[in-house]
Design brief:
Serine Threonine Protein Phosphatase 5, Tetratricopeptide repeat; transmembrane; transmembrane helix; membrane; 0% strand
Length: 251
Amino acid sequence: MTSRLLNIFKDNSLILKWIMVLLAGFCFLWSFQLFIAGNAYYSVKNDIEGWQLSPEKASIKQVDSGLSKIGSAIDYFPDNALYYQIQGQLFEWKAIVEKRSEESVDAGSDLNTNNANLNNAATSYQKSLLLRPTWSGSWIGLASVKLLQNALDNEFYYYVKNAKQAGPQDAIVHKFIVEFGLEMFSVRSIHYVKIKEQLKQHLNLGLQNPLSRDFVLKAIQKHNASGTVCRWLRDASYPVRKRIPNCITYD
């Protein structure tokens, strides 16, 4: 009887050891995949941030490399909304860079390729929102695709509205509305009328938020709108107004 109990104990111990080995192997594999995916994400994120500051530095080769990296990350973690969002940004950049390359050699714009890239971007943003519906960045991504398609329709404003609801204080929302609004103001577009109140609000909020402040200031300078923005924000706080070039003088 004792021998039988010992054999059962040994068998159970062996099973337990194998379970521990399998668990350790699984944890190691998961950690390795997390490390690879995380590195891919931050590498691509840094590239995109660099392109946003200097768009001319983006190349098709770099964008394709980024798509390959983030594609691997998605293969490892297909339920990560952030990976799909950044994949959408890469497809947008691919559309922008390829169009720029075609125009530089007077080859004309390949609308099919451009539309394919933008459709892929929209699909990635939609996948992101299926996983996380309240992600403002993906709503802004969909609005950005519509803007690049020159389709400023009700759907575009629906995306902007959802982005504001999802992240009213998010830097990405301030940046998009400020850049779009100032561009519409500069070209005297009818769309300025639709966005002007939101533009004033997000100029104010964008200058308050340290994550969007520099972008907003550059957008104001780009559109030579310092005087106009100063008038729009005459009721804003002193710390906001003093950041606008030539808005507050001490004469």
